[in-house]
């Protein structure tokens, strides 16, 4: 592609970002991708350095009314409380049994991570993976009544596909627990396990008669993957900064600033949940990020104005190109 | 390739593993790679799962008379002791100034990691990278008098190239410090930063006026990448087990056992330093690994018998296909 003035018209012909409404945000994405990938562009970036970092909860899939991971933990704790009635008097089981919504709605993603620890420590890694997979097979989103694996934002799936076409390497950089997110990352986003950077549970290697097995422990690896932890873990895992990053909350702010302050072209993007009709409208937990985005003149993706539709319309298998 | 009886003869025609002498080890490698990559093979493994893990020190490059990283630290400490004479009475500076060889030869790779910490904590990450790069540009191996970047074992470079041809994904899984090894991994082994799993120094994100910068701290991320830590960090970074792994010491034993105990075809390989003429002969630090290799009937790579030559003969640029 030698034409720098790639525009919405050209994109339409190619069918790129079809779920995005025409506007300055879509145009900024198209411009940026062309500027870094056209060989004769003065701001060309070689493919090995075209790193894109995506937050997950609220950026790639719906995080309301609760984090998906939280719904998984609640379900698991309910099962445990039925198996062991004595647990019903102990927190957090008590809150589950009594359906104490206030208790849960006050939780941050890090606190949910800790609940997962409590739930599944001393569990062999392969058993945990089975539990997560069963959850995704059996459970529906409480509001939309669709499988969670269909709760990805269609325009974001398209954005990832568009970046991949232009030889970007895509990483999920999520506050969620790494092995939880990995169980859907390939199916939903075509992101392999090695490209999921999350908050990781410490595992122990137990070797009996030379037979090693990974067992989940009660602690998390430092730093948790939120705020500055996202930048530190990207450094440890990738060893270079992204040139494009997308987030939606205060926990993504450091990652977006880090992306912006490289001596290279870059595109920080912030999703704004402003669509109360098709999804949920909320600024809570994103106040600092929204303020920074305005100050730094970042592109804010308005779900209400920039997305033609939020989720894939009908069978996700048909609607999302990447869904298997 | 539909022929399962790929053999040394076929390999010769293709020029594969030319620096390896014909023998059971070379044959085992050729067989294994064919068995997992031939589409009609009953033991076919899809490319996404063809993970190969290579230790670095003593497996890919020479670790005697000292770890390269140790030579870097000693040089740095010498410079510091000259700049700050009062340091000459304090260990480890005292040992450097007095050239106390016994002090250093007793160090493990983890202890060398800790010395690095001491040397370069509170240093901005980009400054550290510059120091490491200068070291590799200016220093020669004390025994061979060649740049360290020419101290890779030529047969191992060939093995990596051969695996890459067969769509393996290659990771360095090193006890050394991640950002130290990264500075040569691409040039020497064609391994990008994201595929170097090592012992990582904690970095802090310092943000002044919204300008973030990574600063190296005095602590290491847990677990250090040695012994069981190699398995745990592979799980965190890659999320799947290797089907081929190469090591040379006790610190690689867990990684080799982990590779062996997957419900898939696998090839654990142990390098034996038994060539006192062309390199160094030593079993120290590899006793348990050698014992396990015999018990488990792993292929032991004899540097004396399996390697036609150890290092690339003449200008590495010409001899190693992968050297840039």
From TrEMBL, chains A, B:
Q: From which domain of life does this come?
A: Bacteria
What's this protein's name? Acid phosphatase
